[in-house]
Design the sequence.
């Protein structure tokens, strides 16, 4: 059997999630978090998620992992500004 895993999914976690029949969205969130903790720095995570959607999501648009990856992509593209700190507490 050949290794069908993408270079950005060296342990095959995302690939295997798509192979598990009856997997839940909560299961996919757990798998995604585990993948994210060991994700490569390059290419950027948003590009990696887009690639997962291209490779797996196209044929599985209703799969729970596709939904989780889309949520991750949406959140990774949101700009976050500075929050809190001393300056944030001072009255102007």
Sequence:
């Amino acid at each position: 059997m050949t290794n069908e895993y993408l270079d950005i999914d060296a342990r095959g976690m995302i690939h295997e999630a798509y192979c598990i029949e009856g997997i839940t969205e909560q299961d996919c969130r757990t798998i995604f978090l585990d993948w994210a903790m060991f994700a490569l720095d390059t290419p950027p995570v948003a590009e990696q998620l887009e690639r997962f959607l291209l490779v797996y999501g196209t044929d599985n648009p209703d799969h729970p992992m596709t939904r989780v990856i889309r949520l991750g992509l949406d959140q990774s593209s949101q700009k976050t500004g500075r929050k809190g700190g001393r300056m944030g507490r001072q009255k102007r």
Observations:
- Residues 7-78 form one domain.
